[in-house]
Amino acid sequence: MERRRVAVTGMGIVCPVGNNREDAWRQIRSGQPGIGPISLYDPSEMAVKLAGEVRHFDPLAVIDRRELRKLDRSEVFAICAAEEAVQDAGLAALTEPRDRWGVVISSGIGGIGTIAEQHNRGLAHGFDQVSPFFIPMSISNMSAGNIAIRYGLHGPSGCTVTACASAADGIGQSFHMVRDGYADLMLAGGTEAAINELSVGGFTSLKALSRSTDPARASIPFDAERNGFVMGEGAAVLVLEEYSHAQKRGAHIYAEIAGYGADCDAHHITAPVKEGTWAARCMELAMADAGTQPDQIDYINAHGTSTKLNDAAETRAIRLAFGDHASKLRVSSTKSMTGHLLGASAAVEAVFTVMALEDQFVPPTAGYRVPDPECDLDVVPGTGISCRIRAALSNSFGFGGHNGCLVFRRAAEKAEK
Predict the structure, then answer these.
(1) Torsions phi, psi of 350, nearest 5?
(2) How far apart are the first and last CA of the chain?
(3) Which residues, other chains included, contact 163 with Cβ-Cβ below 8 Å and sequence gap of 6+?
(4) Helix, strand or coil for residue 193?
């Protein structure tokens, strides 16, 4: 089967550092975290006080007020990110049939805010009195369903759920659909809105979250004083398009998505393999899929959650996968600024990885101060760096041992200049 090239021609994002791509990337470049006190509920009686919330967000420019009442917060984020991506790619002007255009919007826990809210309503008023929209608001696939309906996308449509690797798998599978001829264009990304008492309480009980009250020292990947991740929320969507189709219509090509790898630790429900064995293999699979050698990768957007186990295991995995070249890599975690968006994290980080290629700029790991001998890579502390980036890798590793890695390459037209 002929393998077709796949371009990234549009991106949209709603996240803690900005409600559109331009604003979000500007703040990521500057190294300014979007983490602050929780305002979506009263956390005064709970241990965790900080989160990466989406702030100053008004969806009414995109979604009708009556329709808004029928959507979970995660669906709202996804639709708004998709609208920006569609406009960015110039898809609205295209009149061709959309039977080979599809959508995959992944989520780790979907409409958990609606589930918690409607459960409380059922306890108070009887469960026959929950919202008639409760089910479509809570099931994870409805972000993809709503976007397909909005844009008339009759191609493949779905939602990949693999915890914190969800969006990496969804983007990777969408890439393969276009590359292998099952679709010509895919909207691919992820969404999450899990900053509520139930979710935060669950992760707190699991001892996964940072209890820091200092926004500058809460999400600190690879730092020796890291003590857990910070919950984030939001969505990001990328337009993945068959390369020659994008060229013929004169689309702006941000980058080429070139490789995807996936495997499983098959080890523990929450903890990674300490040695990083299978995470390393996942990176190797993605590079092999891209036909890219390790020494051609210049930047890794790390999973980098700010937990003791993950950051050390990921460091070992990178050294296993890259050998001597690992010491020449720049490896930063943008979760230091956004917090951890769970199932949406890989989509947000894919946007930042593509923008790193577009701007030839490596974003920093913000807040990093105290070196950890177990995390001995160049983590780009504090301040980003302008440098040559030929190809970049984005890592995502989820509960259950799910690993997903994506390889992006600088667009050929730009690489030749």
Answers:
(1) -65, -40
(2) 31
(3) 108, 342, 343, 398, 399, 400, 402
(4) coil
Element (H, E) at 106: strand 101-106
Nearest to 43 by CA among 221, 306, 231: 231
Please state whether beta strands 391-398 and 299-301 pair in parallel, antiparallel, or not at all (unpaired): parallel
Nearest to 184 by CA among 94, 100, 89, 250: 100
Catalytic residue among 15, 164, 282, 375: 164
Beta bridge partners of 385: 362
Structure token digits, residue 316: 């070992």
- 207 — alpha (psi -120 to 50), left (phi > 0) or beta? left
Per-residue pLDDT of the chain in tens (417 residues, 90 and over written 9): 679 999 999 999 999 999 999 999 999 999 999 999 999 999 999 999 999 999 999 999 999 999 999 999 999 999 999 999 999 999 999 999 999 999 999 999 999 999 999 999 999 999 999 999 999 999 999 999 999 999 999 999 999 999 999 999 999 999 999 999 999 999 999 999 999 999 999 999 999 999 999 999 999 999 999 999 999 999 999 999 999 999 999 999 999 999 999 999 999 999 999 999 999 999 999 999 999 999 999 999 999 999 999 999 999 999 999 999 999 999 999 999 999 999 999 999 999 999 999 999 999 999 999 999 999 999 999 999 999 999 999 999 999 999 999 999 999 766 655
User: Token pair of 392, please?
Assistant: 């970049």
Place of tokens 């702006």: 252
164 is catalytic: yes
Is 303 marked active-site?
A: yes
Residue 233 tokens read as 């929320």
**Tokens linked to 69:** 């009442």
- Residue of 159, 303, 402, 405 marked catalytic: 303
- Rounded Cα distance, 217 and 210, in Å: 9
Q: From the candidates 15, 80, 176, 340, which is the catalytic residue?
A: 340
Asked whether 12 and 80 are in contact (CB, 8 A), the reply is yes
State the Cα–Cα distance between residues 64 and 317, nearest whole angstrom: 46
